[in-house]
Write a structure and sequence with these properties.
Mean pLDDT: 93
Strand order of the largest sheet: 2-1-3-4
Radius of gyration: 18 Å
Order of helices and strands: HHHHEHHEEEH
Strand content: 5-15%
CATH topology of the largest domain: Glutaredoxin
CATH architecture of the largest domain: 3-Layer(aba) Sandwich
CATH superfamily of the largest domain: Glutaredoxin
Bound molecules: FE2/S2 (inorganic) cluster
Structural class: alpha+beta
Number of helices: 7
């Protein structure tokens, strides 16, 4: 299939047309592209570069510079573990270890059923609840036990 026939590329094309009118639209376009595709493979980066008439290296440079962008497919739910100072001191490394064991993946990886991706993020602004993790838009604080983590995972598994 020609990629331009694909509905996801069509959506991205519409976004680019709309954003092109603004100044420095690249970052916003990449955010929207990541929302559409779930990640930013080279094929998508090339498409953006062609549509904006800029070198693909420029797009690649931005994608690899910002942590918010990923070139690897992500799971349906991204578990963001805060590793800011307060959370780190209150046990973020232990949370990472427990989640790795419960999900069978390392930080930065995605479960084979494509349900969960594990990532570390900087302070999410809820230090009084440290240690904190965020799944989608929902925050979970004062995580202390493996049971709490298992309950959070189960809650998302039930949504599928
Ligand atoms: S350090 Fe984790 S919320 Fe601030």
């Amino acid at each position: 299939m020609n990629r331009r026939d694909n509905t996801l590329y069509q959506q991205l094309s519409d976004v680019i047309k709309e954003q092109k009118k603004l100044r420095n639209p690249l970052i916003e376009i990449l955010h929207r592209a990541q929302r559409i595709f779930g990640y930013l493979p080279l094929e998508v980066q090339s498409f953006v570069a062609e549509e904006l008439n800029i070198p693909v290296n420029q797009v690649y440079g931005v994608v690899t510079f910002y942590n918010a962008f990923t070139m690897k497919p992500r799971g349906k739910y991204v578990i963001n573990i805060c590793t800011g100072t307060a959370c780190y001191v209150k046990g973020a490394p232990r949370i990472i270890q427990m989640l790795s064991e419960l999900l069978g993946i390392e930080l930065g990886e995605t479960t084979s059923d494509k349900l969960f991706t594990l990532t570390a993020v900087r302070c999410v602004g809820a230090c009084s609840l440290a240690p904190v993790l965020v799944v989608d838009e929902e925050s979970y604080g004062r995580i202390e036990s493996r049971k709490q983590l298992q309950d959070i995972i189960d809650q998302y598994r039930r949504r599928v």
